[in-house]
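Lab notebook, page 48
Experiment: co-folding of the full assembly
Goal: obtain a model of how the components sit together before planning crosslinking
Operator: M.T.
Materials (sequences as entered):
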Amino acid sequence: MPIEIPKDKWPGKIRTVTLGATAAEGGTRSKTVAIGGEASLPFMHFENPTPNPPLVAIEIKDRKPEDWSPLLAEVWSEAMNDPGAWAKAAEATGADLILLALSVTGADGKPNTPDAAVAATKAVLGATGLPLLVYGPGQVELDNELLVPVAEATRGERLVLGICEDKNYRTIVATAMANGHLVTARAPMDVNLSKQLNILISDMGMPADRILMDPTTGALGYGIEYGYSVMERLRLAALQGDAMTQGPMIVTPGFEAWKTKESKVGEGVPESWGDWKERAINWETVTAVALIETGATIVVLRHPESVKRVHRAIEELMAV
Amino acid sequence: MALSGIQIYKLLPQTNCKECGFPTCLAFAMKLAAKQAELAACPYVTEESRKQLAESAAPPIRLITLKAAGGEIKAGNETVLFRHEKTFFNKAGLFVKVKASDGAEAIKAEVAKANAYKVNYVGIELCVDGFAVEADGGDFSAAVKAVRSATKRPLILVGKDTAVLDAGLAALPGENPMLCGADASNWEAMADLAKKYSASLTVSGASLDELADLTAKIQAKGVEDMALEVKGDNLSQNLSLATQLRRLALKSNFRPLGYPLVTFTEGGNGRDAVAAAQAISKYAGFVVLPRFAAELFYPLLVLRQNIYTDPQKPIQVQPGIYEINNPKPESPVLVTTNFSITYFSIANEVEGSGLPAWLVVCDAEGMSVLTAWAAGKFDSERIAKTIKTMDVASKVSRKRIVIPGHVAVLSGELEAELPDWEIRVGPREAVDVPAFMKQALI
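Observation: model returned without errors.
Model output:
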């Protein structure tokens, strides 16, 4: 019985975006990486080739975070005290990209300063040849205060700066445009709000191939289904030809999974949750893989073992 | 495929006898098409028409049921490719596989452990759905009996040799198990066996063409309840195959492949978790794992709950004042939204801390704190209104409320809305609430 496999034909495709710049391109990265370019739903190789695999970024901080799970503190150990060393350790673990998340305060408890932010960024750039993403602490004024000098001090590197949200995007976009960087645009789990923010950023003159979309996601057990469906809908809208939803999607399953009780703590939890470490890794990995299969192009993770497992999954998913 | 009213009309007697309760056959046909009437109401419809209409009404993915004394598991009847289009209906059954070669004692111990497992997620008790027994040598009948002595839940028997499988099935009288392993080499004998024991039959083929041929032949032998094994070499092939099968059933209405899917996951170092997660999100009706471990099943059971939640109905709890650990008038008032995951996260933390508190759950249309805030469903006005209409002031002696850290920006406005209340900003995450209550709420 010969069967005709139903194949989707789409008018649109995901935009190709290049991260990082080599010396020849005005930066200092040892290589650049391209993401996006898909013309089908994720990994439907029987319809169209998948030009670029999804990538794994490892999230590091400019100083040792106090509120991260002991499991993360244990695995990164001394490297957490020095962003350069941490970036090197992350690269050695197999990261495709590094995401440097700037802290609200310095070690002295006072607000983080532009000088410290620039120094941390430069330390990371000096320690690794991987393309870099730099995110502010997530407070409007401080984000702008820190990210502008970082953008200026790294002109031409094609960093990804973030996070642009509807209440604060202008300053970050302006400095990214002026200094040859990219931005992440985050909207709260809503197709129309994602689209709206992309329009606002594009209206400022930012080229579309320098915008990553973060649709926001929840961890497994904490709202993953909302982000999951929003991502599926965004991907479908992009393939149907809606230009303002065609940016590659970046999500932060590491951040989301490691703030859940299931990952974060090992004491005072039900016995039925099983072994702490393995559960935590499964929590991060399952969240990440589910999102990759809905169309995530970059997943930002925290634990090296999750990175390894997610990489193996991506390798299998890319097999034709 | 569902027929239109006109197509149905052509199959009716067209005598307008009105005995069905409708004025004309056409009116009756329209009601049938809208599924607002039953064909049984027409006393004169021919046997031939009845058959055609029944076929057209059959779901594109057949519903099959595994039954045992301890319960039943259904798969099939799915209608969409993406959960946001409507919802996914029959949650993928999560099974644990044991091998006959492990011996009856080891099997019994493993099954008893998995069978006793239960875990609470947002107030729902989750457990392993059933067990698979593989005939890989050794005494299969004894292995099946060992499993049956340790669990009452539905079983899947896996193998190729029908004589061996027969001995296993004979140990399960009165049940509807699943028989797994029919292919081009043994389909006829497997079909006979499935029929003999009222088992559903899982079929695999080297290609979709071969698979469709096999299911058609097996159906002709009288076995209706089938499932299809997704047997790719890697995650990529499994994803493509599962997607193609779902599309063929739903978009092409291709009956020979309109059956639920079965996926067996393999691989250590966490690969089984990844493969099972993919199968749960992408279309499996049954997922069979090679081992049981709480740290493996808990995340997978939660993923399945999440994926199978109806997207049109956020899971909510009733807005109101919840008393945790017998609060007294001087106990603190914590405010949150009525998204059930949010509620249970906070409630479990506070309960676990042993500290008494009044938990005020605002009606935020079932959204989490941040989402509700972004959507304007959890603002100072709504919180203030909730505090007033629920008359929280009558319960407490100290007028102090704690709002989630994620909505710290609301504290100023809330002070204006509730001038005689002290407004405190709590932590962003539930997990940090007990420490906050101990240190900051003295």
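Interpretation: Chain A has a mean pLDDT of 96.
Next step: discuss with group before ordering constructs.
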